[in-house]
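[step 3/7] fold_predict: job queued, chain A
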Amino acid sequence: MVKNKNMKAVILAAGEGTRIKLKIPKPLVIINGLSLLERTILTFADLNVQELVIVVGYQADKIKGHVANMPIIQDYKITWVENREFHRGNGLSVLLTQDYVGDRFLLSMVDHIYDSNLFFNLLFCSGDLVCVIDSQPRFADLGDATKVLVQDGKIQKIGKGLAEFNGLDCGMFLCSRKIFPILEETIGEGKEEWDDAKEKFAERFKLDFFDIHGALWLDVDTPEDAAKARKLLSKRE
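[step 4/7] structure written:
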């Protein structure tokens, strides 16, 4: 594979992660020998993306120090973006990256774990906002997951409270700059979560999607999630 020189990847790593109930930032939680942040970086390494934009906030210096000591980090160009209002919704973290990304960019939450090599064909998708979904979820917590309703080849609705849905949002996206005006609009309305911007984008334009059809992915929010991830990954790695 050739390096994707024109593609940058954004990693959202600014939040406090209070539900994980640890005294370290969530990006530094270790799952089978690798931190969540390392795992996210390695996911983009599988795509040969070499430029990362990492948004930090809570204990930012500790996260930067962790990355500086990672053996693989010499292969990457990293731009740090600091969200000093990390207590607000994570839509603000996405908005803060607008001066550091190109026309199209990848975006992932730092607390999502994926099977490697899932996303190569994602880079060939068209659409201004492509949401990776799972139409056959086997591992996710349905109660906590962001849900999607796909009809006529597009995501018509997206949100945690959907009563009718046929897939889950996996936390990985291919975005265009068309998302930034939507973020400005939703944040201006006091709706500061990334989910809020996705909902408005779906209402206005509909969303494209990339389906992983039941492949392994996990959202690590709680100690129970972390234990589940360790157990599942120990069987695969």
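[step 5/7] annotate
The chain is about 25% helix and 25% strand.
Helices lie at 36-46, 60-68, 91-95, 179-188, 194-205, 223-234.
exit 0
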